[in-house]
Write a structure and sequence with these properties.
Elements (H helix, E strand, L loop, with lengths): L1 H28 L15 E2 L5 E8 L6 H10 L5 E4 L1 H6 L1 H9 L3 E4 L12 H19 L5 E2 L8 H9 L3 E2 L4 E2 L8 H11 L5 E5 L5 H14 L3 E2 L2 H4 L5 E3 L4 E4 L1
Parallel strand pairs: 1-11, 2-3, 2-8, 2-9, 3-4, 5-6, 7-8
Antiparallel strand pairs: 10-11
Helix pairs in contact: 2-8, 5-6, 7-8
Length: 250
Amino acid sequence: MKVRLIKKIFMITLLLLVATLISVFTNYRYKGTFINTNRKIPIYCVDTKEKKVAITFDVSLGDEYIGEILNVLDKYNIKATFFVVGDWIDRNPDKLKQIYERGHEIGNHSDRHPNMTKISEEKIIEDININEAKIRNITASGTKLFRCPEGAYNDIVINTVEKSGYYCIQWDVDSIDWKEQGADIEYNRVMKNIKPGSIMLFHNTAKYTPENLPKIIKKLSAEGYKFVKVGDLIYKSNYRLDNEGKQISD
């Protein structure tokens, strides 16, 4: 009888301990207490009450739809950010010049689009610098924004990018337009996830993007959103990142 009582007390105590731990974990998980907050991450979005967002394009393959995209942006007087790859610049120097001269922001997207988590710090620096020189040669202006090829990163990549003088930029609204699943699917995906401070990702070679851009722009404009370049959206100093990559002003 005594042994049974002791076992019962032990089980109750154990259950209370487990319940307490679950409660503590749930309460602090949002704050990142049990997440490796020392892990380096890029800027995914910005914490702001202002209804402003950034449109970005990754430009690494062909030159399809560049003209159509630029015409849409001109029509609505919107400036976007284009992350370009050096190999693409080699094949399309006139297109890069056109993007820049029409008032858009240029970001560095590497020279050869390698997965930077699989190369050395020295190779990362070399790749970034080669593309930076190509951008500067065409535009006579450098860039302070970098986007990791394939969106792949680790602590070494982020540290190297930041030490090289760049803000590492990811995205929080992915159109996944490269899959070309349909205009409505891509449009709804963007609209469902947009919020103040969002950074949207598109690709210039995706066939539904020129069709969706006007709809997205008109809808968000009607809701009171403003479109800005990434460089005008992010905080340049006195900020921190939460565990989801949201940039928060200190």
